[in-house]
Amino acid sequence: MISPDWFVFLSVLQSLNKETLCRIPQSINTWTIHGLWPLQAQHCCSCWPMFHSDVQELEAELSEHWPSLVTTKSSFHFWRDEWRKHGVCAACVEGMNSPPRYFQICLKLRAQFDIHKLLEDAGITPSCEQPYKVTTHTHNLQFVKICSTDDREVWFQVKIPLSHNLTLGCDHHGDAEDDLATGSNRAWSSSPGHPCPPQVPFYYFPIDHQQPKQPCG
């Protein structure tokens, strides 16, 4: 058993509980990438710049699978922020030592972990009325509470632990907390989700492009 070196986050309704003005592009109807975050990063080169030309060839694919969901930030500025916060800490890993390579890996992982297909195959579909439950305590499924929906737990994010070589790893949640305490995982606290206790009903809401923050009224 080894501790995870990375977490890849796949989100639906990523900005659901934030006060910022959010939007979901009409082309987005399924899970998107939230980020690929290295843990226990020792060397982060914050001076490594990123230019639009770095992701120009990937722009169409990134727009489909990793769009900006806030009206105040363009897609490129959102991707550049992800590179500045997380990519520069991943750049010491072979195969990710440039913005194009980092984003290519993220897209490859998104294709590898096709959450929508896995859920669909298991008969789990978005609904405003159908509750689901987890039988064991897990930190890999992240939830938020939506006050406008009678304080229901809403599933919005999957956290996938990966080992150093980007294969599935083991989620030792305490390690993540230690990283946060030491500052080596600078963006962990920016994720608003929390684990859902066992046997507590939760909801997997559909996407509503017109009311992205309140898809079920």
TrEMBL record:
Stored Gene3D superfamilies: Ribonuclease T2-like
Subcellular location: Lysosome lumen
A Pfam match: Ribonuclease_T2
GO biological process: RNA catabolic process
GO molecular function: ribonuclease T2 activity; RNA binding
GO CC aspect terms: extracellular region; lysosomal lumen
Family: Belongs to the RNase T2 family.
This protein's name: Ribonuclease T2, like
